[in-house]
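FORM 7B - TANDEM STRUCTURE REPORT

SECTION 1: FIRST PROTEIN
SEQUENCE AND TOKENS:
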Amino acid sequence: MTVNHAGALKKEYFLSYLNLIKISRNCTIEQAKEIAIELFFHHNAEEYGSHTYKRFWDAFQELNVELLTPYRNAEEYGSHTYKRFWDAFQELNVELLTPYRLAV
């Protein structure tokens, strides 16, 4: 995908970019995120500025939430299973946000 260096890229750009990586490489959204950080940002959050990086993280979070939608109904899976899932997600979410917190 061509990048215009004139301004900050939008979240919609990264939604498309992450989905493209996910589909073309047949990988998870987490793996797509890692690939994008390597290939697009070159492991440098400031490569295209903090606004662009934040929008990248916003897009990643949106895609992550879409994946979790089936688990929102705790009764369907039982409260204990849902609690364990939610605790694991919260722990993972903190790990995912750490690079963003350092970049801003």
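SECTION 2: SECOND PROTEIN
SEQUENCE AND TOKENS:
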Amino acid sequence: MTTITIREQESTDSGFTATLSFDGRVNYPIAITDPFTPKQEQSLEWYFEQWLVFPQLGTVKAAQAKESVKSYGEQLFEQVFRTNIDAYSEYRQIRGNLSQIQIERGNRFLLLLLLLPPFQRGGRGGIKLMRRQSL
């Protein structure tokens, strides 16, 4: 079973840099930016922090926010796995045999990565998430 590790390196003006590795082998450099505008972020905040508490109001807005989570995750997936052809090739080889995703010093962008359909299709039920704050 394979472990994917995403290790946050340092903050940038638009997000942060990180490394991506499979079973601790090659560290692929990646850059992560917020895939949404501030307005889209506000919609997600409203959905997760307010609407889920009072789900009777704003059902159309809630449906739009819920659908946007998929787009958010897909854009993160592109940034993490598809910016380097070698990294994406490795991911495609192991995606059906993935057992663990380890996020070190990860922020909310990376945690939402786990909502992605690509991980759900790869048998997400058996994937274990590890989040470490300190290195």
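SECTION 3: OBSERVATIONS ON SECOND PROTEIN
The chain has one domain: 2-36+72-132.
The CA atoms of residues 64 and 105 lie 30 Å apart.

SECTION 4: SIGNATURE
Preparer initials: ____
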